[in-house]
Please model this.
Amino acid sequence: MADLPDHPSEIHLHPLDAAPSGRGATRFAQIRLRLERIEPRRGWPAHVYEFLLFGFKQGWACLFGGLLLALLLGTHLFYPDHAPIARYDFLTIAAILIQIGMLALRLENLEEAKVILAFHVVGTVMELFKTTAGSWTYPETSFLRIGGVPLFSGFMYAAVGSYIARIWRIFDFRFDHYPPRWQTIALAGAIYANFFTHHWLPDIRLALFAATALIFGRTMIWFTPHRAARPMPLLVGFLLVALFIWFAENLATFSRAWVYPDQAGGWTMVSPAKLGAWYLLMIISFVLVSLVHRPRARQG
Model:
């Protein structure tokens, strides 16, 4: 990425944000531009402001997933036992309304909505297979479901896609040594296939981890919280997001959104071994988003 400008008026937005009042832009573009134009004093005030702005942008990127997680916990604690609509059906309807509201209020753009739809389809297909195989269950009844899978479950995968699509744009991702597209697509396809085939064929998870390290080992991601672009190894970024999702999964299973076999008699913490599965799922998620937000090389 080229050196960032010193003068606030020279800050330029991602192409999807270039015209905050125009087609495809979000309301966040206007807020983001105003915040990025603030120029705190050098030294610790600048570092504190950058950290706070980083947190604000992360929170905005998590908006869809955060609202969905709040719904899971809120309905677990307060949903009436004899409500006319089953809790799972309420969650499905609420997730759809959140998505419509975000588009109507221009909190999200159509390109990001397309990513969410793709994740919903990919996630629902996996859910149908995994519940049939007994990997986990949805213990409550519902009407809006396919087989043993309530339709709100696809939105949990969509929340991951929403986060990655939004954070890619908000932090203006650039890359050093990003691998060829065919390699990333082939890796994502192999990971997705292994989620199914390991039930009757040897689990090649360790080989997939090795392939991930080989393909993305040199890749550095540059993200811009405020003025300066900050580097991070992409593999570390995958791990941090996977860890965050694992924490969210513990909250979701606590709310009985779904139940693993060892949680049938009562909630227990999700095994840290699930981090590996989420790490691999991050590869699939990242590659899917890269088909919409094309990876751009850092300049200079």
Q: What stands out?
A: The radius of gyration is 20 Å. DSSP finds ten helices and five strands in the chain.
